[in-house]
């Protein structure tokens, strides 16, 4: 290594350059400027001419935590992004046509330290004294009845639906107020140091150079820095996730906003419905191997409700992950780094995880062990999310089109096979720390899609029949009375976020 390469590698990180101003770019700018803004020089480059992907409007509860960390006031945020509340996802036509279940953000029942609630519920079913699994989950019941209110001490677990472009604008103001600089311009070249391969600057169309020590690639599917410049490879997951295309649009609302995202399975993919305060976000996600673009468009447009307020726009994607999210002095966040289709609304969460890990490991100088740790951590979290999304496909009983028949033949990741088999045999789910989806999520989706365990844990047999009746009834009564006390979701949003 010559002196100049060594200099670059050992240089303290002072100037951070974020390439791209979509959700990923502005989330990174907001988090960095609010935490390390006093010691870093942060610049974000974005191009209005190129624009953003324009989707990504359903979230999961971890975003509530992220906003708390950044001291974002919820009412301000929800008013700015025309947000609504999300208590879960309604999966329609997934097990079979006409079937529906909700994967909610709530906990079902009460666990015993030695065994989860599902074991007691299952024994109750065998004895004919338990209701449906949904009767024991507050958030799930509230979602089914279109209700919501904030409760003290985090008494209800929720996430948001939001307008993605308004969110980027909201974070942009917040970041600029915290000292981040914004540069409008098209990146035409990424300059690197010949010896070390480190990125040294972004060259813009007007000839200006944005120099930096650490570069964050948030250029979306283009992956200008990590992919096109540094040539970091991509692991393709299309043998597990068949969809590679989407079409999105926005419509007027024809009914009150429901507090959940709808994911409706179709001929060769599925559609989303995301209700906001001022409109509904709609999209179809499909596999171009099993349906043509014209057929998908036809299926999509014919099922829309309300008036279309934006021409549908197509998105092509490839499911998978970058072999390294962090390589040399470049960290990829968002679509530049990985993509798992939005069935469980996890991409914004994964951006957030990338940012949190980067903040925790923020380097004085870049060191290989830390970079390796970052990459291993993110890869493991991503693979967990991938397994959870594949779960929905592998458990379907649909065989009505070539797409669903091909999915039935699919070989799934061994880690996922193990989890399903374990649940089928024992009714238990074991969670590794840092995994996003807790036991409750796995159970709701597995049972929602027809997997019933063969046995329950012996602890459930220790309770007498009478005690079990009392135990189950008490939980159900508490859930019912809590839900009865809630206002409708729409009424709550109207008073929580009154218009201008
Ligand atoms: P983009 O939004 O594409 O932003 C890229 C930025 O880079 C833009 O500002 C662009 O102008 C800039 N740029 C690119 N090239 C240049 C250049 N040469 N010069 C200057 N600037 C440049 N996630 C969820 O969590 N929930 C969902 O419900 C959800 N739904 C989705 C539905 C679909 C169909 C898809 C494809 C994704 C969905 N996602 C969802 C993912 C979500 O959209 C993204 O995670 C999120 O929008 C972040 O995107 P991004 O910032 O990485 O990329």
UniProtKB/TrEMBL annotation:
FAD binds at residues 21-24, 335, 348. It holds the Pfam family Trp_halogenase. Transmembrane segments: none annotated. L-tryptophan binds at residue 344. It comes from the Bacteria. The active site is at 86. 7-chloro-L-tryptophan binds at residue 86. Coiled coil: none annotated. SUPFAM superfamilies: FAD/NAD(P)-binding domain. This is Tryptophan halogenase. It comes from Noviluteimonas gilva. The lineage of its organism: Bacteria, Pseudomonadati, Pseudomonadota, Gammaproteobacteria, Lysobacterales.
């Amino acid at each position: 290594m010559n002196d100049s390469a060594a200099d670059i590698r050992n240089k303290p990180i002072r100037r951070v350059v974020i390439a791209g101003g979509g959700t990923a770019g502005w989330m990174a700018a907001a988090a960095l400027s609010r935490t390390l803004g006093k010691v870093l020089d942060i610049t974000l480059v974005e191009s209005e001419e190129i624009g953003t992907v324009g989707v990504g409007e359903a979230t999961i509860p971890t975003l509530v935590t992220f906003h708390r960390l950044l001291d974002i006031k919820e009412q301000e945020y929800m008013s700015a992004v025309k947000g609504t509340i999300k208590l879960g996802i309604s999966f329609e036509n997934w097990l079979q046509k006409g079937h529906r279940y909700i994967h909610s953000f709530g906990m079902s029942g009460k666990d015993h330290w030695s065994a989860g609630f599902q074991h007691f519920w299952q024994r109750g079913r065998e004895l004919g004294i338990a209701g449906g699994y949904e009767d024991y989950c507050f958030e799930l019941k509230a979602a089914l009845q279109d209700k919501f209110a904030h409760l003290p001490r985090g008494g209800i677990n929720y996430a948001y639906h939001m307008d993605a472009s308004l969110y980027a604008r909201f974070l942009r103001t917040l970041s600029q107020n915290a000292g981040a600089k914004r540069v409008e311009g098209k990146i035409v070249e990424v300059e690197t140091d010949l010896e070390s391969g480190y990125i040294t600057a972004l060259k813009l169309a007007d000839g200006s150079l944005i120099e930096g020590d650490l570069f964050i690639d948030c250029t979306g599917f283009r992956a200008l820095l990590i992919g096109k410049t540094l040539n970091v490879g991509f692991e393709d997951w299309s043998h597990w996730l068949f969809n590679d295309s989407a079409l999105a649009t926005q419509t007027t609302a024809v009914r009150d906003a429901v507090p959940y995202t709808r994911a409706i399975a179709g001929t060769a993919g599925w559609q989303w419905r995301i209700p906001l305060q001022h409109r509904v976000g709609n999209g179809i996600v499909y596999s171009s191997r099993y349906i043509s673009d014209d057929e998908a468009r036809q299926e999509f447009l014919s099922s829309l409700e309300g008036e279309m307020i934006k021409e549908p726009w197509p998105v092509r994607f490839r499911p998978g992950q970058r072999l390294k999210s962090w390589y040399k002095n470049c960290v990829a966040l968002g679509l530049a780094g990985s993509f798992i289709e939005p069935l469980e609304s996890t991409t914004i969460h994964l951006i957030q995880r990338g940012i949190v890990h980067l903040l925790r490991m923020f380097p004085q100088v870049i060191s290989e062990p830390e970079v390796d740790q970052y990459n291993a951590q993110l890869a493991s979290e991503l693979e967990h999310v991938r397994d959870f999304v594949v779960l929905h496909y592998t458990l379907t009983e649909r065989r009505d089109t070539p797409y669903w028949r091909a999915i039935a033949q699919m070989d799934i990741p061994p880690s996922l096979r193990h989890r399903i088999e374990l649940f089928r045999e024992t009714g238990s789910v074991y969670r590794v720390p840092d995994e996003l989806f807790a036991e409750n999520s796995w159970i709701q989706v597995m049972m929602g899609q027809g997997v019933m365990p063969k046995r329950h844990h012996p602890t459930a047999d220790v309770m007498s029949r009478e005690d079990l009746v009392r135990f189950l009834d008490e939980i159900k009564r508490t859930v019912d009375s809590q839900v009865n006390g809630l206002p409708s979701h729409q009424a709550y949003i109207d008073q929580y976020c009154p218009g201008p």
